[in-house]
TrEMBL record:
Keywords: ATP-binding, Kinase, Membrane, Nucleotide-binding, Transferase, Transmembrane, Transmembrane helix. GO terms for molecular function: kinase activity. ATP binds at K67. Residues 1-27, 236-261, 892-921 are annotated as: Disordered. Residues 37-319 form the Protein kinase domain. The keyword Kinase applies. It comes from the Bacteria. The lineage of its organism: Bacteria, Pseudomonadati, Pseudomonadota, Gammaproteobacteria, Lysobacterales. This is Serine/threonine-protein kinase. InterPro entries: Kinase-like_dom_sf, Prot_kinase_dom, Protein_kinase_ATP_BS, Ser/Thr_kinase_AS, TPR-like_helical_dom_sf. Residues 238-253 have a biased composition (Polar residues). The chain crosses the membrane at residues 344-367.
Amino acid sequence: MAASTPPDDEFPTKALASAEPGSCGEGMAPGQRIGAFRIEALVGRGGMGEVYRAVQLEPVQRVVAIKRLRLAGAGSRQAAWFEVERQVLAQMQHPNIAQLFDAGSLPDSSAYLVMEFLDGEPLTGWCRSHRVSLRGRLDLFLQLLDGVQHAHQRGVIHRDLKPGNVLVTRVNGRPVPKLIDFGIAAAADSEGTEVAGTVDYMSPEQSNPALGSLDVRSDLYSLGVLLHELLTGERPLRSSSDPAAHTRTTGPQAPSERLREMPGPVAGALAAELGVGRGALLRLYRHELDWIVRRATAHDRADRYPSADAFAADVRAFLDHRVVAAHPPSRRYRMGKFLARHRLGVASAALAVAALLAGLGTALYGLQQAREQRMLAEARADENAQLAAFQQRMLRDVDLSAMGEQILSLAREQAGLTPGFRGMPESEQAAALRLLDLVDGIDLARRVLDSQLLDRAESAIDRDFAGRPLLASQLRETLAEVHDSLGNRARAAVLQREVAALRSDELGPADPATLRARVAAATALLAAGERDAAGDELEAAERARRTASAVLPADLAARLAMARAEWHSQGGDYAAASAGLAAAAAPLADAGGEPALAFRLRAQWAGSLLREGRRDDAARVIDEALEAAEAELDQDDGALLDGLNAAVPIRAGTGDLEAALALSERLYARSVERFGQEHPFTLTQVNNRAVTLINLQRTEEAIPLLRGLVEARARQIGARHPQTIKAEANLASALMRSVQDREPDALRAQRSAESAQRLRRVLAAREDLLGREHPETLLSRASLASVLMHGGEMEEALRLARAVYDARRERHGPTHRDTIDVLDLLGQIHLAAGELSAAREAFAAVLAARRAEQGDEAFGTLSAAAGLYLSLPPDSPQGRSLREGLLQPVLDPPIEALPPPLQRTRRQLDAAAGRGVGADG
């Protein structure tokens, strides 16, 4: 709660205006006690009650805010709103939402909330008084969006987003906005006819219930108004006090329009406050910020952003000079953003145009010649076919590493020839050249190639081969393959679908060329995260094959099986994926002549077996595949790289963590050299390496890798892409594991809170994208339960873990490895909560299952034995038997000689021996 609120940021909340002023009676005096809290001073008073600054005296001492409502003088509606606020705040755990500490009632019928005390100012007032720059304001606004997203993921609509309810305070010297006052919050899609909120910030549907129920986009409208105010210093509908004004069919005025209407001195003062010249400010607002505000405040909610995350993505895109989704698409706009984002790179690229044209000029010349000779196409079909093949080779053989290095080399050479550079001191020359060392030449070359060649080649195909659809499909297929190799999966998928449609029209749906294109399109769509669309392509291929009773070539049958298996895996049906790949492996091996394809299929099969829980079978299949591939394939063959990549998690899954780490580091170095820092294959190696480091208990090395990975994937493919979500889940795991053995301190509290926050976001996204019972959703729920256990929130941890156990038991049976793993987690939660009988029962079942499956020396077996031992009464016969039997390999050697996972188990056992363990309960 706030210490003070300037009058010009106070706007009445409509739903609370019915209480009579003064109806709360006398307030509480300084020094008065409410339980563990002592009143210090009155902060503010309103129609419903008062807000006080108070001190909590025990069990910790801290300054808090107490919000009091005198129910005896308030209507039932005010009491209901107060109860809503209490229930809503109890769900919130976010750095940008004021925290609720306690709640209760007093003998005089008062109700109260004890909250985080915020000695801050409303957002707009803070920005004015501290003359916050444009970027600084947008950074604060992004933090606010993150807090609002947190509330929306819990099904809560704030309904009163305005400057007075966003207080900025300093945390560790850094300004942090805090969202307060959920007093009129509502559930998403809630029905009702009561108008509630602050008029100047209401969405049309909020001010007029006839327009339908509220959803999260109602809050986004209010945030759009708030952003307009941050940009211009004025509210877009400041003169209106009539809710009907919000039902107009056009949105509020755009920021640039408001800026143009301002008197010169006012606009100049605003620009100076934002640290930008008036003309530059107008240029910044026009187009992108205007479009962002317009989309957020669109009259029709269907035209607004779908979520606060999407809103934030556009604001970040503006700050990073990337394409803003709200802006109408145009090639000129995209090129402008590229130039703004890569001024140095584009300048270097411009110097390399001659080299680029020299290396690829023959391909462009071929396209030009084909256009001039299209009237003679029939007579020269063979020549055109040869020309197309030549163009394909030219595109496929582009060496990004050499191209990137040439661009940077030319930039250094050209810099040395300029008078300005030669006139600089040597130290400044060296510093300037060092900037080029920070540029990733491969990524730069990839962007130049995309904009300078591939876009032009696609346009040339559309223009010059419109009358030759088969030749056009061949060239388009090549472009798709190049885009895929560059990491542009979404564009590759679009092109492959166009190829399939062209060939289906020209050759028929059952022709092998058409079916190959269908499979390629499905594979690209799966890589791009478009599982439903991929299913459509696979179904079309199967339907055409069945209708024509076609017998597929062995390689095409294998590719179809691989695509279908990936589709099953993304849907969580790993058994079906494994069965399909096993059925396809033998015919492909018998056919011969496709060693790379056979290796890819067997590597995929091994990965599917691992996900299914069949670790030994997975290790056998990948070892056999690697032995054959290393004898038949070149060391730089892409198929071998893919297979080695599949071997990393299999090595880790079978316990050989050091081998998994060495393999992932080797692949990362090779991928950076070949593809660049941010290619999808390179990022996959970052993830593999980080996950292996986590399993080796080297979490401090894993955390920065995963932070960079989450940022890179969110920037490239979006925050809700499955790969980004997986990276965030791994980061949450690393954060928790890094502090789970620490004594309670600030770092443990901070990382535990961040881990839980990220896992809640991951769980919400997976429930939305995959469904509540998908294996990855269940994994996220179990991970969150583990984090909550370490944070002491046993009740919620137990509820989540039981739900996962019930789902896995129903799906897989009681002895499946995944079911046993979550039963182990249930045992850990019971043990941490002191429920030793329940823990004992769980660990006994886990130990029996793991001994039968994995043997007595496996880590999982020893971990379960340690859990059972810790749950037994002190000096029990069973406990002595475990210490002298199964647990001896953990207890006898020096702790540093044990593998990292067993070192933690040993520390638990040593600590238990020092204090005595167990009790009947």
